[in-house]
What we know:
Elements: H1 3-27, H2 29-48, H3 51-55, E1 60-67, E2 70-76, H4 78-101, H5 108-127, H6 131-149, H7 155-186, E3 197-198, H8 201-214, H9 223-226, H10 232-241, H11 243-258, E4 259-260, H12 263-284, H13 290-310, H14 314-345, H15 361-375, H16 381-395, H17 399-424, H18 431-434, H19 441-459, H20 462-476, H21 484-488
Parallel strand pairs: 3-4
Antiparallel strand pairs: 1-2
Helix pairs in contact: 1-2, 1-5, 2-4, 2-5, 4-5, 4-10, 4-14, 4-19, 4-20, 5-6, 6-7, 7-8, 8-11, 10-14, 11-13, 12-13, 12-17, 13-14, 13-16, 13-17, 14-15, 14-16, 14-19, 14-20, 15-17, 15-19, 16-17, 16-19
Amino acid sequence: MGWEFSLLATILVxxxxxxxxxxxxxxxxxxxxAWAVILGLATTFFAVTLLPAAFSGETHVFxxxxxxxxxxxxxxDGLSVFMAIASALISTxxxxxxxxxxxxxxxxxxxxxxxxxxxxxxxxxxxxANLILMYVFxxxxxxxxxxxxxxxxxxxxxxxxxxxxxxxxxxxxFMLLGFALVYAKxxxxxxxxxxGFPIGGLAVALITMGIFAKSATLPFHTWLPDAGxxxxxxxxxxxxxxxxxxxxYAFARIFNYxxxxxxxxxxxLMILGLISAxxxxxxxxxxxxxxxxxxxxxxxxxxxxxxxxxAFNTIGVAGALLFILMHGLAKGGLFLAAGxxxxxxxTKDITKMGGLIKAMPVTAVAFIMCVFSIVGVPPxxxxxxxxxxxxxxxxxxxxxxxxLAIFTALLTLVYLMRLxxxxxxxxxxxxxxxxxxxxxxxxxxxVASLAVLSLAAGILVKYPMDLANIAVxxxxxxxxxxxxxxxxx
Length: 489
């Protein structure tokens, strides 16, 4: 199987397959559900088959002219393959979880269409090496998230879905203006041709606005907690697998891989990431809605990823890329566990819960395991990625930022342990919800799988680290990359 076939299959299987789902659903809902899972598994499989190309040490480029001066240019390297595998794997688990979660809801045809199309757009975006092509896939994900957030159709829900669309699409307009400034100076949208080209502060600022809007980073973060009105699998998809990670990936591909940005902007971007992490962590300390707490936690952890990428050194960038995978696994587990809790209790208010560990022991254990990974407790995967990010910040001579990042990690421990304690420990504050049991077997199995993967990714950290090494080599263009595991010893 050639790398070109695997590349096209990774992108086209979910995009084309998504539009077949409603047709199959007209004949058989179980058949549609099975086909959605197969599409997710196939996407993950084809992404994995690109690993030999990523490890070959070469950058593989697929390029075809599509007219109007735009080429369909896709690049297969460590960065794109790393992101594709992480996103496809977590998205597939979320699709499987959805089978039990939304089985009694309306609009299932649209739901599965949008989820799988979302996955396909993400695959197209991570392999894109053309700014316009990236922008097209960027907007497709925005449309999909708009419909998924507005799944329940209530007036309040629709307003919040519209808000998410307006913030992310508005940011994308500024990003497109930044691309136009770059094109005016280079005469091309091909990122491979522009590699190493210095760009000005205005272009960096415009592009950053689009990236921060999509990734829900301060001051564009408010749409993400509001997106908790969506079904839990959707919120997990937005937070853990696809949407907010798009901004992170775009940052790595545009600023780390392609352009040379002004030196002062390294510090500016790192400070913005720190402020986003600290403010959202502080807000999570007083929030009582379980989904909003987890959403604010996502905003905070994305700040860490931006700080690692803004370090512009090997250990920081590698830690940030590894953080994408580790956060995706653990945060996906937390959101899906929250779905089990919400289904069982009928509420998102943690002040009405308590004692649920007796009724939901598997969910409780999986929840605390995912908390340990997010906080950075060894040997969970989150420890290695967060440690490397902080080390990268310090290595870039930003000692004060590194110290505040450690303080923010302590805040993360406080608000997540508060969440676990109020939900699972003590006595039930509402006896009517205490008697409920675990979710459906499929839902609980997926939550437990993500918790186990969060632990396994830490114990077997060498394997994701090897791929992160390749991604960093491709991002920074350094063939003599350091052995990062040696730094950890």
